[in-house]
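Records of this kind hold a single protein each, on a pair of labelled lines. Below, a sample record shows both lines together.
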Amino acid sequence: MRAEYDFSKSIKNPYTYQLKKQITIRLDEECINYFKSVSVDVGIPYQSLINLYLRDCAASHRKLNLKWE
């Protein structure tokens, strides 16, 4: 290992815009179990599957029809 490294000619990572932000979210166990079972069928990790679903909802501007009383 070198004592010093020269980063003067380095470039910024072009893929940093694709990084994900870690958050804490509370989901019902039923919801988690559903996505886990679907993930087994399609071969995608359940957290990635939830992210893909939410991204699709955001891209299509899907809205819920809820009434809080």
Q: What stands out?
A: The mean pLDDT is 90.
